[in-house]
Amino acid sequence: PFMPREQRGLLAQRARPYRITVLPFYPRMEEMFGAADLVITMGGYNTVCEILSQQTPALIIPRETPRLEQLLRAEALKKQRLIEFIPWSALNPERLHHQLLAMLDDLQPYRQAIAGFPLDGIDFIKNRLRHFKGSRP
Questions:
Q1: Based on the structure, what is the number of domains in the chain?
Q2: Is the dihedral of CA 71, 77, 106, 20 positive or negative?
Q3: Are 73 and 43 in contact (CB under 8 A)?
Q4: 55: in domain
Q5: Taking residues 112-127, what's their average pLDDT?
Q6: The domain that contains 53 carries what CATH number?
Q7: Is 25 inside any structural domain?
Q8: For residue 93, what are the domain limits?
Q9: CA–CA distances in Å: residue 100 to residues 32, 52, 71, 79, 132
Q10: pLDDT tens-digit profile of 36-63?
């Protein structure tokens, strides 16, 4: 949403022949994620939660400054084979192209991993709190 209008127009123009739509903002991203074959994102917390809940494969290109939270999240998700990621410091057009084609060639492993990933964090925390409350002297 913060990209200058002229630059956004050029990006949209270049994307059009590939049937890629560039949107500056979309109020119902969960619908967009659910309809997508693959999501490319920086990997913020809310976005990752939506991707996992919609069971959509993702390529994360995390920001590394001023904080490392997106990079740490991407590394943790990659270890569980839920996503692929390219470190910002290693990003270049060739690597992005190669990674996208490789993922789009076979999305099933990501879908299977995401389908088996528990999204029961609230219940887990409630049970832990009950346990801690019950273990007090």
A1: 1
A2: negative
A3: yes
A4: yes
A5: 93
A6: 3.40.50.2000
A7: no
A8: 36-134
A9: 18, 18, 19, 19, 45
A10: 999 999 999 999 999 999 999 999 999 9
Q: Which two tokens stand for residue 131?
A: 């346990």
pLDDT at 84 over 90: yes
Q: Is residue 124 part of a domain?
A: yes
pTM, entire model: 0.81
Is 92 within the bounds of a domain?
yes
pLDDT digits (tens, 9 = 90+) for 11-20: 999 999 998 8
User: For residue 73, what are its two tokens?
Assistant: 């999240």
As a residue count, the chain comes to 137
CA angle 84/3/56 to nearest 5° reads: 30
